[in-house]
Amino acid sequence: MKASGSSAIGAGFSCKNLNYTLGDKILLQNVDLDLAPGDVASVRGPTGAGKTTLGLVVAGLLPANVKAESIRELPSCWRYLTGELTSSHLSRCQPASYLPQNPLDTFVFPSVFDELTAITNDPAAVSRAIDYVGLPQFTIQQELSQLSGGMLQRLSLARMALVKPSLIVADETHEWLDASGQEILFRLLNDTAQAGGVALVLQSTATDRIPATHQLSMAAGAISSSPSGHLHPDWGDLRRKQYLHKGLEILRVEGLVKSFSVGHSVHRLLRHIDLVGHGGEWLGICGHNGAGKSVLCRILSGLDKEDFGSVSLMGKRTEANERRKQVGYLFQVPQLQLPLPLVGNMLRETVAASDTRRRVAEQLQHICPNLTEQKQVNSLSPYQQRQLVLTILGARAPSILIFDEPTWGCDELEVRRLIDSIEEFMNENRLVIIVSHNERLLDAVCHRTYRLRDGHLEVKE
Fold first, then answer.
1. Segment 164-188 mean pLDDT
2. For position 457, what pLDDT does the model report?
3. Which residues contact 54 (CB under 8 A, 6 or more apart)?
4. Is 224 in contact with 230 (CB distance < 8 Å)?
5. I need a labelling partner for 287 at 20 to 30 A (CA). Which of 68, 391, 408, 433 fits?
6. Same structural domain, 302 and 360
7. Distance of alpha carbon 384 from its chain centroid, rounded?
8. Residues 445 and 302 in one domain
9. What is the DSSP letter of 239?
10. Is residue 324 domain-shared with residue 453, that is, in the same domain?
11. Whole-prediction pTM value?
């Protein structure tokens, strides 16, 4: 199955002296970019460099208040836009195919079936697309709410394979994917290029597996031809000493089982989970997309119930509603935990005592100087949103802090700052659990790392 048609499309992208401003903020300045049919360009840069803005402009998803000396061969969907970026624009725009950092931003329908059949009514083509991205066939019968972040990203790749775009813009798409999912993404990029299309890959945390013909870097809205940063960040300085002294037992999971229903069938996701964690420990959990990592997080934090087995905190067997009070869980998408419009609104609604609220606000200012109470939550970067949620959770003094893919949307410096913030919350009576595809980071910061495979936790050697 190809990502593009077999004939060369010849849809390149070229701009000269491209500038983009939002109010008085310069997002792009004097950008020159020339992508010929068959090119795959990798653009690396820190958070705030302007990568997403560039991707939206290339994909034709930003309004035409762009000042440039010349722009030729823009995607044809540009002229259909009214200026407001919406899910329907992202999912239906042709011939560009834009994959945002958060795949939830592109879906229109509640079910997998509706999402894919909106593109084609050919059931065989839908089935092939599901196979191509490594999802089980029963996924077609599932609701989007039943899928993990990695599975949602694979679904977005399946949709791309059905659309067969001439232009792909992948904005930090690989962050939600495991190693096999990343290989599928890179194969789609390569297939599109070989068919005469163009691909633009935007990334904060670099990977050397992208089949790029151009390696570019970006900072302060400007592009240069010299890539910046390390392909693989060295987390060695974060490496912890072997955990020798076991503190108080915080968590004990025994024989945990969780199944879910699809149509008339029942699929057992977690078959038999055993896990013990002590105060002062950092535990890591890795595993492929759909292995059940996020489901396990939800059960441990009391947002979901186990079918069988037990979860004990501080030596006492607990029900889900009890765990919600004692476990802090930071979602893969932190914005889902920030429903109110302003930072100040969130602090007032989630931190009861005024003196604690004042201390939390001061702590936030120390961590993120620009994160004031007047800031709009939806204007914050994923890193800032994560720091805000972490600070709110820390104010509750939970005995366990769980982080689901905490590095998503963060550059290397932000990851280090986030680890520092987690460290500040730690003491001998707290347990930290980090779920991530970034095994290099887990190996560095965690005392023990487990791999979730076939419904069981195995100690990672």
1. 89
2. 95
3. 28, 31, 33, 43, 200, 202, 218, 223
4. no
5. 391
6. yes
7. 14
8. yes
9. P
10. yes
11. 0.82
